[in-house]
Amino acid sequence: MVPLRLIYTSCVLSLRQNVGAIVENRVPKFNKTTKVSVFSAYLIRMSFLEEIKKRRTFAIISHPDAGKTTLTEKLLLFGGAIQIAGAVKSNKIKKSATSDFMEIEKQRGISVATSVMGFEYRDLKINILDTPGHKDFAEDTYRTLTAVDSVIVVIDVAKGVEEQTEKLVEVCRMRNTPVIVFINKMDREGRDGVELLDEIEEKLNLNVGPLSWPIGMGRRFQGVYNIYEQKLVLFKPHSKQVGADTIEFTNLDDPDLEKHIGQAAAAELREEVGTIQAVYPKFDRQQYLSGALSPVFFGSAINNFGVKELLDCFVEIAPTPRPRFTEERQVNPEEDQFAGFIFKIHANMDPKHRDRIAFMRICSGKFERNTNYLHVRQNRKMKFSNPTSFMAAKKEVVDEAYPGDVVGLYDSGNFKIGDSITGGEVLHFKGIPSFSPEQFRYVNNADPLKQKQLSKGLDQLMDEGVAQFFIKEMNGRKIIGTVGALQFDVIQYRLKHEYGASVDYEPVHMHKACWVECPKPAAFKEFLDRRKRDMAKDKEGNWVFLAESAWALKMAQENHPDVVFHFTSEF
Ligand code: G4P
Known about the structure:
Layout: H1 4-18, H2 32-54, E1 55-62, H3 68-78, H4 101-113, E2 116-121, E3 124-129, H5 138-144, E4 150-156, H6 163-174, E5 179-184, H7 193-204, E6 208-210, E7 212-215, E8 223-226, E9 231-234, E10 245-248, H8 256-261, H9 263-279, H10 285-289, E11 294-298, H11 307-317, E12 324-325, E13 330-331, E14 339-347, E15 356-364, E16 367-368, E17 373-375, E18 380-382, E19 388-391, E20 394-397, E21 400-401, E22 406-411, E23 420-422, E24 439-445, H12 451-463, E25 468-472, E26 478-482, H13 486-499, E27 503-507, E28 512-517, H14 521-530, E29 535-537, E30 543-547, H15 550-559, E31 564-566
Parallel strand pairs: 1-3, 1-4, 4-5, 5-11, 6-11
Antiparallel strand pairs: 2-3, 7-8, 8-9, 9-10, 12-13, 14-15, 14-23, 15-22, 16-21, 17-18, 17-23, 19-20, 24-26, 24-27, 25-26, 25-29, 28-30, 28-31, 29-30
The chain binds guanosine-5',3'-tetraphosphate (G4P).
């Protein structure tokens, strides 16, 4: 038997390594009281670390229609979080809905419910963060990507890499977010596998390593060979079964292969798997975790096919909560002190209550209900009596949450995207930028009696990150800049219904707004004097250059080499 004294000392040493602050520098005396308190501190610490290790927080991203919603739903089905297909509503706004306000409102309602979908699988806590598919809401998606630790990219086998996928993966690459690729709709005729991998490498700039390989496609689709687990997974068309027939197949030269998939397909599979194993790098988890290698899976989400393999591999390889960076220092999940940031704000549906839900990603420490935390930007203490967690479509008040989790905080206008909440330390999380808008309108007050309501409405909508607001230096005119045209309709509608204010828009001919700065005051003054007509300030009072055309921007850059032009607000 191990002597009690030895166990006690090892607890103290382990605590010292993990906690530091809790335990003094020497091993406390072995008396009854210290023994109990050290043991319980040890157990609390260990269970905290266990909770962190259980978390997998990720997003599924795709071009609209590639199958993101379907895949999400199937993952929730496998995770037992929902019982029937159809429980997760597609949150996409159909292309025809540009001015369909009811559709926008419906979308807002659905996306609160599906903003975070948590479920448990193989004793892990999986958090899927939803991202809007519509390109006009791309900025929302970019920000959500700051709150995840990895992503799954869905690609339609027939369409290959589409525009929206390129942009989203670019944002992931900027942060070295680990990416898994799922090539969907294998039950349909599509592009050749190797050709698709080439396109992914070229357009998405990812190094790929297939972990499964399809056996035919469309009508000839027979399933996949799971390279990761060395299994043959057979596809049964029109079967609604959860899970597929799998057969261990460590050696593809086994003559039994013919029995399962026929001679021609077996020969083709052997040749193709041989080639890809020779050409593509062997899977290496460290490379995947550093964003240098992306495993690829093939399947058909609507047929539940290939989804379980994806999920089983995902839970094994996907990262646990990763550190986050602040202007001050790196924040590690295992730290005792709580810290988190707001990455998304969602207005409530009820116009009578202007409540909003601010979504906070927990980055370090344990978050507890009714505990005083520091709202860093406002430099004041706040406590939260109803922090909400999201398990599939269910919302519930939580008493505690851990790094990797996302909690919803009811907010009456205190938060803005990027805000830090901490246990007391002043931290400013990095990597939550605003992107240079590309669509602009002058905004005029259409109801002078409602000036106050308009200001408040615009202020809050901008805090939510719906759009950006600029005031022209020359004449004080107000300009709203957005990434997509749909936001103008959303703003007009929400100002009216939530704030009782009316606005008209006037077109502005403009190419881009970029933030400017210059290390040389004299050169900056000259730039500001000469370009007065094109200068504006954003909500925070930063200088913004409004370029009328790509040419005007190029000229300004050439004529003022000391001035730095930024295309995101974070620099
Ligand atoms: P999104 O969230 O990425 O926009 O895509 P979503 O899941 O809504 O899927 C887009 C369409 O593709 C849907 O059809 C969906 O049923 C279909 N789909 C998804 N996975 C597969 C697959 O593996 N094979 C095939 N053949 N189709 C797939 P829809 O007609 O637009 O909608 P619905 O009427 O089926 O809901």
